[in-house]
UniProtKB/TrEMBL annotation, chain A:
<keyword id="KW-1133">Transmembrane helix</keyword>
<dbReference type="InterPro" id="IPR000515">
    <property type="entry name" value="MetI-like"/>
</dbReference>
<dbReference type="InterPro" id="IPR045621">
    <property type="entry name" value="BPD_transp_1_N"/>
</dbReference>
<feature type="transmembrane region" description="Helical">
    <location>
        <begin position="139"/>
        <end position="165"/>
    </location>
</feature>
<comment type="similarity">
    <text>Belongs to the binding-protein-dependent transport system permease family.</text>
</comment>
<keyword id="KW-1003">Cell membrane</keyword>
<keyword id="KW-0813">Transport</keyword>
<keyword id="KW-0812">Transmembrane</keyword>
<feature type="transmembrane region" description="Helical">
    <location>
        <begin position="12"/>
        <end position="31"/>
    </location>
</feature>
UniProtKB/TrEMBL annotation, chain B:
<feature type="signal peptide">
    <location>
        <begin position="1"/>
        <end position="25"/>
    </location>
</feature>
<dbReference type="InterPro" id="IPR000914">
    <property type="entry name" value="SBP_5_dom"/>
</dbReference>
<keyword id="KW-0813">Transport</keyword>
<dbReference type="InterPro" id="IPR030678">
    <property type="entry name" value="Peptide/Ni-bd"/>
</dbReference>
<feature type="domain" description="Solute-binding protein family 5">
    <location>
        <begin position="79"/>
        <end position="429"/>
    </location>
</feature>
<comment type="similarity">
    <text>Belongs to the bacterial solute-binding protein 5 family.</text>
</comment>
<dbReference type="Pfam" id="PF00496">
    <property type="entry name" value="SBP_bac_5"/>
</dbReference>
<dbReference type="InterPro" id="IPR023920">
    <property type="entry name" value="ABC_transptr_sub-bd_KPN01854"/>
</dbReference>
<keyword id="KW-0732">Signal</keyword>
Length: 370, 544
């Protein structure tokens, strides 16, 4: 990337961040009630409207929205995340408590989802027997349509209450992760498997595959050396979307399993109109989202030779330009083939339209909040 | 290639097996020396441990274990009995002065003594609040002026006007006694993240907290000042209680029925049958207050005509609601107060289901059926908006069933959807909510005043906050009377008069007596609830 391109990227990221922040702020303010009402307006406290007014004034929420908005932006820029109105705890403390648990859950679920997606896609493409392939082909749509909370409840019922394998209460750290991770794995694996399967199907149709086959490549060679790398690209494109799935799924999963985490923190923050907490979560989510997309964009040329630029060559700028079709050597081409095995072809057909792929400068709608 | 993949799969499987195969320590196996730790499941997490905010059940459930009160209210008889006070208070003739004599030797878990100075400090805060620290006044304490420590064991309280409910008020969770240092905290410092620093003198002490999910209470070994009327004295017989938040009802039910937890609060009516099995029990504790009811906000143009309100009452089939949606734990209401509540009067003849009469009343009031079946008058449709009472059981289903029933007589019903914060904001707007679904648990004559008086919960919006206009001054006067006459007989009469007024004016429709339903394993013995259905673990033993 040239320096200009890097600067443009950073600028875009900051803009996305600011838009997400403002959007969350405005939406939360638009909901009926505010943090002070949420905390003190409960009839159980039996406070009179005058007493409520006093408390509102002491929190400063009776001032105009614009003033409070700029104040919060200022505080954010100086690194002060503020305090939760609901509990009075420092937002940084709440995040420190919630982040590790959610990250562990998300990482496990993602790993599980990739594994499951690969298994489903390969079985659906190369499984033994027509019925098996058909069965696995229909798994992703099924997985996508099953509600996450329902999966969670069923898993608890079966594995914990019926079979007694995993306690829900008093479980060790590892045990407490199994069911939530499984719950979160299924909805994430579904789109992954679907995209992966689709691109395997498309790559298999490519002429070079027939060539490789003709040269005596085994199915597994074909799969690992030729089909998989080419099918990986669209899967990678999904990474940003998957992150959104992860956040959304974590919210529900953490609620069902009563886990501490960013998900349950978000739910609480929205329910209590707890602006400082919610904004911190939004900023974190946006930063991660932007970062993931940046990494994906940078990885594209590494994975797809057709996207590499000739050195010093002008790069098609911000508009969705066609990828530079200068064919370069496929990374697999450098491998020395073992005797008896067919060497891999050096070149995915450059004439064919690349399968289901967006261009490097993708403009996605921003905001990871679903 | 193939080998490597198989190795991977094998490794993954091994990890999975190792993880599930870990020996589980349920954390509640009764040891030889201790009585074990009880696991208690709550549907919601607590949000503050400031006692006057104990009306929110999750808060009260914790406060009831960690704080003592000056007096003890017997949950069976609702009589007041000594506790931290050696005897019942001396009260002057017009109930403006109370004198308590305190027990000796009571200490807080931080070692400081519970003496007269400290009790005064407690009630000066609970009775007056402190807006600088955003600490509210206790709803249970009326007309508080000041407290005075006469000597180390004698406390006097003075009131600006008769305050006959004070003796009962000091027995509630909202008057849980706290150490001097704890009383200096701000509102934030009573919130989540500070639990272990909230110091009471109760039988349990908070020793660990995971914000939003768990709270561990440990028994206090040197506890020796339980209410004298209790059979058990001294330290609790269990080692402690783990409060665990499980928002999902099916998870709470399954966790207890599968033996992974001991007690769960809020068992939904449809799941009650599961606790009929061997080794399980169900306890439905009365909340002894204002029943689960609808308040018709009579200041709204659509509800100003008493005939419309009477028609709504006659058009709603309460028995169908209770039979369809609930169980035997939810008795049909016979008045605005529960049968066991102080001051209860039977007004059930005002709440008879009679759809024909309902139609007739609406005809008389000039509401004629429109083209879409909803009645109209002067071009306006008779459509009312109900709130969804989120803390109450199955409120949405109740309103949906009512929508169906009132549809039969040509009245439209809409449900105000929204979370708790939205509901709390909407509750004060006459144009948003015309029929308010709610209840209040409190075992005192004052409970009806709390619910309907314009200066308290104002459920009928008798006082419109927007216009500051009082619509039914007589109602307010009747309610205020309950909290200002000194003797029990007089309070009884005042309460009956207020209930009669509510019934005659067709302001309310009581639906059922809302219980607190706990599901528990039979191994849990001695589980009780206090006077409004909050759990009490002091006398519990675990048989393993």
């Amino acid at each position: 990337m040239t320096r200009g391109a890097v600067l443009r990227r950073v600028g875009q990221a900051v803009l996305v961040l600011w838009l997400a922040y403002t959007g969350a702020y405005v939406l939360l303010a638009a909901l009926p009630g505010d943090a002070v009402m949420a905390r003190f307006g409960n009839p159980d406290l039996g406070l009179t409207p005058e007493q409520l007014e006093q408390i509102r004034a002491s929190y400063g929420v009776d001032r105009p929205l614009v003033v409070r908005y700029f104040e919060s932006i200022g505080a954010f820029l100086s690194g002060d995340l503020g305090y939760s109105v609901q509990s009075g705890a420092a937002v940084s403390d709440l995040l420190a408590e919630a982040l590790p648990s959610t990250l562990t859950l998300a990482a496990l679920a993602l790993a599980g989802a990739v594994f499951l997606a690969v298994v489903i896609a390969f079985t659906a493409a190369y499984g033994k027997g027509e019925w098996l392939r058909r069965l696995f082909r229909n798994l992703p749509p099924l997985f996508v349509s099953v509600p996450v909370f329902w999966i969670g409840i069923v898993l608890i019922q079966v594995f914990s209450f019926q079979l007694g394998l995993i306690p829900v209460i008093g479980a060790s750290e590892a045990q407490a992760l199994i069911l939530p991770a499984l719950t979160l794995t299924i909805p994430i694996a579904a789109p992954l498997a679907q995209v992966f399967l689709r691109s395997i199907d498309e790559v298999r149709e490519q002429p070079f595959v027939s060539v490789v086959k003709a040269r005596g490549a085994s199915t597994s060679w074909l799969l690992w050396r030729n089909v998989a790398p080419n099918a990986l690209l669209p899967v990678l494109t999904m990474a940003g979307l998957l992150f959104g799935e992860l956040v959304g799924g974590a919210i529900i999963t953490e609620a069902v399993f009563g886990r501490t985490g960013i998900g349950s923190l978000t739910v609480q923050a929205v329910a209590h109109r707890d602006t400082p907490v919610l904004l911190a979560v939004v900023v974190i989510a946006t930063v991660v989202y932007v970062t993931i997309n940046l990494i994906v964009d940078l990885l594209y040329p590494v994975l797809d030779p057709r996207l590499r630029q000739a050195r010093g060559g002008a790069r098609p700028g911000g508009a969705a330009g066609a990828p530079d079709p200068a064919p370069a050597a496929d990374p697999a081409a450098g491998e020395v083939s073992a005797p008896g095995e067919a060497p891999a072809p050096a070149d995915p057909d450059p004439g064919a339209v690349p399968p289901a792929r967006s261009t490097p400068d993708r403009h996605r709608p921003s905001g990871a909040q679903r | 290639m193939k080998k490597r993949r198989i190795a991977w799969i094998g490794a993954l499987a091994a990890v999975a097996i190792a993880m599930t195969g870990c020996s589980s320590s349920g954390g509640n196996d009764g040891g030889a020396d201790g009585g074990g730790t009880l696991t208690y499941l709550e549907p919601q997490t607590w949000n503050t441990l400031y006692p006057p905010a104990g009306g929110f059940y999750p808060n009260g459930g914790v406060l009831n274990q960690i704080t003592d009160r000056v007096l003890y209210q017997n949950p069976e008889t609702l009589e007041l009995e000594p506790w931290i006070a050696e005897e019942l208070p001396q009260v002057n003739a017009d109930a403006t002065e109370y004198t308590f004599t305190l027990r000796e030797g009571v200490t807080y878990s931080d070692g400081t003594p519970l003496d007269a100075e400290n009790v005064v400090k407690n009630f000066d805060l609970f009775g007056k609040g402190d807006s600088d620290r955003a600490l509210s006044v206790s709803e249970a304490i009326n007309n508080y002026d000041r407290g005075e420590a006469v000597d180390e064991r004698t406390v006097k309280f003075f009131f600006t006007a008769p305050s006959p409910g004070f003796a009962q008020a000091v027995s509630t969770i909202n008057s849980g006694l706290l150490s001097n240092a704890t009383l200096d905290r701000t509102n934030e410092e009573f919130g989540p993240g500070n639990a272990a620093e909230i110091v009471g003198s109760g039988p349990f002490v908070i020793d660990d907290e995971k914000i939003g999910t768990e709270l561990s209470l440990a028994a206090r070994e040197d506890y020796d000042w339980a209410p004298p009327s209790l059979e058990h004295q001294g330290a609790p017989q269990i080692d402690g209680v783990d409060f665990i938040v499980a928002g999902e009802a099916s998870v709470r039910v399954g966790t207890v029925t599968s033996g992974q937890a001991d007690v769960a609060r809020t068992i939904p009516a449809p799941d009650e049958a599961q606790f009929a099995a061997d080794g399980l029990e169900l306890i439905a504790a009365s909340t002894n207050g204002v029943n689960n009811s609808l308040s018709f906000r009579f200041a709204h143009p659509l509800l100003q005509d008493i005939r419309v309100r009477q028609a709504l009452i006659a058009g709603i089939d309460r028995e169908e609601i209770v039979d369809t949606l609930f169980s035997e734990s939810y008795p049909l209401a016979t008045g605005i107060l529960a049968k066991t509540a102080l001051g209860y009067t039977d007004t059930s003849q005002n709440y008879v289901y009679d759809p024909d009469r309902a139609e007739q009343l609406l005809d008389e009031a000039g509401w004629a059926p429109g083209s879409d079946g909803i009645r109209e008058k002067d071009g306006e449709k008779l459509v009312l908006t109900f709130n969804e009472a989120l803390p109450q059981p199955r409120s949405k289903e109740v309103v949906t069933l009512i929508q169906e029933q009132l549809g039969e007589i040509g009245v439209g019903v809409e449900l105000f959807a929204g979370d708790q914060a939205a509901q709390d904001a909407a509750r004060l707007e006459l144009d948003t909510i015309q029929v308010y679904h709610s209840m209040v648990g409190r075992a005192d004559f004052d409970v009806i005043k709390s619910q309907f008086h314009s200066a308290n919960r104002n459920a009928l919006l008798n006082l419109d906050p927007a216009t500051n206009e009082l619509h039914d001054a007589e109602l307010d006067a009747l309610l205020a009377q309950i909290a200002s006459v000194p003797t029990t007989e007089e309070r009884q009469q005042a309460s009956a008069a207020a209930q009669q007024h509510l019934a005659d004016q067709a302001y309310v429709l009581p639906l059922f007596e809302e219980p607190q339903v706990f599901g528990l394993r039979s191994q849990v013995e001695g589980f009780k609830t206090e006077s409004i259905g909050r759990p009490s673990f002091y006398e519990v033993t675990l048989q393993r």
